[in-house]
Amino acid sequence: MFCHVVERLQKVARAEGSTLADRLGHGAAHTRDGLEMDTGADRAGERSVADLGDSGEWAPAPRPFYARIEDDEGVSRWRTIDHGQVSSVPAFDSDGELVGVIYPSDISNQMSSQTWIGSTSETLGTPQSFLAKLADGSEMILISRDRPHDPKPWGPGAKKINLHSTGDEYYFYADPSWKDGYGTPVTLGPRSAGRFVATDPILEPLSVDGEPDEFVVNACRSGAEKDEAISFADELFKAEMVKGQVHFPTDTSLGGGGTLPDGSQERFISVVSNYDANGNQLPLWLSVTEEDVARARAAE
């Protein structure tokens, strides 16, 4: 499986005219002149116009994104990132077709993400799960094998994004190297993160063709607050990456694969289940539509 993924990555790299190392390496330096500044953790990059030498032509060029980073002592500061500085890999389905992008924190996260993304809608399991407290006070997600699987809100052909999130912040890993592995974690707010994903060159072949489609954003708690999920989704709609719905997990999510008690292999994605006072399961996924985004824009 890993060899096939590497081969596909190499093909994508060759198609872009660069090596995979170049894709994961450092991007060009940028200045902050003219950068639009938002507030809080949501300073979003936009498109600017760059002079192309003596050609007399003008073309869009990406501006950097402002992200937060913490040093070893926990002190937070701003830095800029662009797509060339962040660890990201194409995600493929079981037929080898490009369906999305993964922003991994390590090799295990990358492979588990590819495992659930690579399954078809029919073979992807959605077992119920819960957070269990361990003796040392930490938490672990456990699968509930005695309960029926949860339904999926998306159908076949959905595009997929996998990255880390706390709901109000999204994590990307910048400046990968032999020393630092996949890189140092940096955070963007929901709107900046949505714009970063929507402008990722990996996703350019997936721009919509007029047909309804869907996006699954597998990022923990990204659907816990609807307003923040709408901010992320808004950028996908603006970039014409989606015309259908964008689906976000409302709590911690787990995607990957494993071996069932009977020895068979399973690919799954599971969102931690929560229940109201009457024992009714609360929604596991928040689905944002273009109408939701339009109402939010009108209310601004």
Any overview of this molecule?
By secondary structure, the protein is of the alpha/beta class. The chain has six helices and 18 strands. The strands form six sheets. A six-stranded mixed sheet has the order 5-6-10-14-15-18, sandwiched between helices. A three-stranded mixed sheet has the order 7-17-16, with helices on one face. A hairpin with a 5-residue loop joins strand 3 and strand 4. Helix 5 crosses helix 6. The N terminus is likely disordered.
Number of strands: 18
The number of helical segments is 6
Give the mean pLDDT: 81
Strand order of the main beta sheet, please? 5-6-10-14-15-18
Helix content: 10-25%
**Distance between the ends:** 47 Å
Question: Could you tell me the radius of gyration in angstroms?
Answer: 20 Å
**Unreliable segments of 5+ consecutive residues:** 1-60
Q: Report the major sheet.
A: 6 strands, mixed
Please indicate the percent range of residues in DSSP E strands (runs of 2 or more). Answer: 25-35%
Overall shape: it is: globular
Order of helices and strands: HHEEEEEEHEEEEEEEHEHEEEEH
How does the helix and strand content classify structurally?
A: alpha/beta
Topology summary:
Blueprint: H1 2-15, H2 20-24, E1 47-51, E2 58-62, E3 65-70, E4 76-81, E5 89-92, E6 98-102, H3 107-117, E7 124-125, E8 129-133, E9 139-143, E10 159-162, E11 164-165, E12 170-174, E13 184-188, H4 190-198, E14 215-218, H5 226-238, E15 246-249, E16 253-259, E17 265-271, E18 285-288, H6 290-299
Parallel strand pairs: 6-10, 7-17, 10-14, 14-15
Antiparallel strand pairs: 1-2, 3-4, 5-6, 8-9, 11-12, 12-13, 15-18, 16-17
